[in-house]
């Protein structure tokens, strides 16, 4: 079963239902503006009543997902369109160099950044290509850290801030179209009247540099 959707001037694709022993599955096939063809599995076919569970697709929702993919291709922000040849580990090293040498951050703070990155960010994302990291993958990682309960919410917020800075720098150096961390939902603050844990001046400036807009920085 093929349902053709053409996207003006840039990309075209279709959704395809594949019958398997364990149940039918939806696939999307599309051609990028550069001519590269991609096939991607969406998920199992939902043929029941009501809204499909997470990860399942009806014909209509599969077509909707294809339109979203083609829309991102049109804007040049579809993950995987840019081939940087760099990994997240490469971006971390560049961010640390930039932070110390060009931003003039104190060596002690850079050491803290490096220790935190090697302990948490490199194991989670280090060997991935920059363009392979998506907002969803960062959201899943954040949720896992929260569920494990080994790190405080403040520490997780710091990791997200650092990761945002890493990808912000990577956009300048490797030409990434988007920063996947910008779309990650931030953790709400939880006030504990028995504890006061203030940011250092260096951490405040790090937050300013990672702000999404000038107003947020203020």
Describe the structure.
Strands 1-2-3-4 form a four-stranded antiparallel beta sheet, with helices on one face. It starts with a strand and ends with a helix. Helices cover 46% and strands 12% of the residues. The chain is elongated, with a radius of gyration of 21 Å. Helix 2 (88-102) packs across helix 5 (153-174) and helix 5 (153-174) packs across helix 6 (201-210). It has two domains: 2-75; 88-217, Orthogonal Bundle (DNA polymerase, domain 1). With 218 residues, the protein is of the alpha+beta class.
Short description:
The chain has helices spanning 59-75, 88-102, 107-125, 135-148, 153-174, 201-210, 214-217; strands spanning 2-6, 12-18, 25-31, 37-44. With 218 residues, it is an alpha+beta fold.
Write the layout of secondary structure elements.
Layout: E1 2-6, E2 12-18, E3 25-31, E4 37-44, H1 59-75, H2 88-102, H3 107-125, H4 135-148, H5 153-174, H6 201-210, H7 214-217
Antiparallel strand pairs: 1-2, 2-3, 3-4
Helix pairs in contact: 2-3, 2-5, 5-6
